[in-house]
Amino acid sequence: MEEGKDPNVNPVRTNQSRVLPLRLLRFMLVLVVIGIVLSIVSVRMNKSLGIRNIVTRTLPCFDEPVSLQSLIRPPSNYLHSMNDSELLWRASLVPQIKEYPFKRIPKIAFMFLTRGPLPMSPLWEKFFDGNEGLYSIYVHSLPNYQPNFTTSSVFFGRQIPCQMVEWGRMSMCDAERRLLANALLDISNEWFVLLSEACIPLHNFSIIYRYISRSRYSFMGAIDELGPYGRGRYNPNMLPEVNISQWRKGSQWFETNRDLAIDIIKDTKFYPKFEQFCRPACYVDEHYFPTMLTIQSPNLLANRSLTYVDWSRGGAHPATFGKNDINKNFFKKILEDQTCIYNNQPTSVCFLFARKFAPSALDALLQHSSDFFGF
Ligand SMILES: *[C@@H]1O[C@H](CO)[C@@H](O)[C@H](O)[C@H]1NC(C)=O
Ligand SMILES: *[C@@H]1O[C@H](CO)[C@@H](O)[C@H](O)[C@H]1NC(C)=O
Ligand SMILES: *[C@@H]1O[C@H](CO)[C@@H](O)[C@H](O)[C@H]1NC(C)=O
Ligand SMILES: *[C@@H]1O[C@H](CO)[C@@H](O)[C@H](O)[C@H]1NC(C)=O
Ligand SMILES: *[C@@H]1O[C@H](CO)[C@@H](O)[C@H](O)[C@H]1NC(C)=O
Fold first, then answer.
1. Most C-beta atoms within 10 A of its C-beta, which of 200, 252, 261, 316?
2. Which domains does the chain possess?
3. Could you tell me the pTM of the whole model?
4. pLDDT tens digit string along 276-314?
């Protein structure tokens, strides 16, 4: 009996079931041929390009799961290709869960704003020695300066991408914001200290770390100074963002905690007003951050700087100390003959850093550092 005529069998289905294995076989054959051709081609290419070993060596990386530690590890190289808008945006990212799911040891970021060399670096090296893990270092110099620290130096590779700075102008605040933003990229940095090449530490690391980490306030100088060099620099065009009674003046050399550092780098409200209406003889680095933070967070400010400077000699620049100024009495005056408020209590420890020191002072400072400063 012919199959097609069987009333129980669907003729179309019968046809298909006969044809299918043939098609399948042909299809598989094509696949096998393509496979062989592809593998021959790829082996040849790998051999000719010499990438066979690289491919097998890099494979395990793809298998390794990403850990939190690898995502938050600070960069080993400070160089990056972000421009300022990109950098400030990246640095403004803030975790919304306040409790860290890992042991976070808070660090102090020491940010050096310099023209070129750091003549006091040997003293700082001595100061930092033995305190690894509790500090980070960032250096912003003029763009044409090439630092020449040896690989064993704590300053080696600590240079961030820099731009031109004109003293007393907004480009100075831009450099400070650039330092803060780079330092904010390391999630462990909790306090941020701005220093110059003429600054020295006045105490050993443990004293400075304890003083800063236990303070309820950030050390931003901010005073309401009457007269031409204070309120006299205020420009009413800054209204409504800043009025005359909110105008503040302070030393450029500050210390802030992480929250205030983020407030500084994320600001877009005050920046245009200061850029436009605080130009010499209004020195923007003495007014922008103190005024803005006084308006936004007055209760977080100590309103004084941690950096000693001597204006008593008069003139446009503070005194610079050289070899002949360095003696026990000089530092006794800075370290003991002072009173100020620390966490709402009077204290004689008012300054942790001092400026300005000439390179000629270095040898005497190094020689007597344990006597003067306890390190
Ligand atoms: C940074 O680069 C972005 C993208 O190219 C650009 O939109 C932005 O204006 C740049 N910012 C600065 C400050 O150059
Ligand atoms: C680095 O350069 C400065 C001059 O800019 C020089 O005084 C110093 O000795 C150099 N240091 C090293 C380690 O080469
Ligand atoms: C400045 O602004 C503050 C806050 O808005 C206000 O309390 C103060 O009275 C203003 N001062 C002047 C002189 O306008
Ligand atoms: C700093 O000054 C602001 C006003 O400008 C004030 O509210 C604040 O209490 C002062 N800080 C301290 C620690 O006294
Ligand atoms: C730091 O200085 C203080 C006071 O001078 C001293 O008691 C302490 O032992 C010093 N710490 C270190 C680690 O040298």
1. 261
2. 76-305 (3.90.550)
3. 0.85
4. 999 999 999 999 999 999 999 999 999 999 999 999 888
